[in-house]
Specification:
It contains no helices and eight strands.
């Protein structure tokens, strides 16, 4: 689910928004992380408090898809109301300056399994009635 956009303007400044029903961060920007640790994030995801202070929302790492090698960014925001929200940033296919922020979903997929519906057990079953008769 798309929950925001990050845009690089003509001056190279990167900013945007991330919003859901429980939060709305209007002035999101990246802050480069200076670390020699191999697992350190590339950026801290930042915003400003109502008083203008810089506030860290989460972290962002550079990633690449296994299938195509396409670069994207993965990370999280930590919202007080929604908790830990995993996100991915993918470059827009319409505008190379825009990155779409997507709420990441679980990578696990269910294996196909057969589901047997119960047999109708006579006139008492709601499934035995015509839909127009269920009023």
């Amino acid at each position: 689910m798309n929950i925001g956009e990050i845009i690089r303007n003509d001056d190279g400044i990167v900013s945007g928004y991330i919003a859901e029903a429980d939060f709305d961060f209007a002035n999101v920007f990246f802050q480069k992380v200076e670390s020699s640790h191999p697992r350190a994030p590339l950026f801290n995801l930042m915003t400003r408090s109502p008083r203008g202070r810089q506030v860290r929302l989460g972290s962002i790492w550079e990633r690449a898809t296994k299938e195509t090698g396409e670069v994207y960014f993965g990370g999280y925001i930590d919202s007080a109301r929604s908790g830990y929200v995993p996100i991915r940033l993918f470059r827009s296919r319409q505008d190379a300056r825009v990155w779409n922020v997507v709420r990441a979903t679980s990578q696990r997929r269910r294996e196909a399994e057969d589901i047997d519906l119960p047999e109708q057990d006579g006139a008492d079953s709601a499934l035995a009635h015509h839909p127009d008769e269920l009023n």
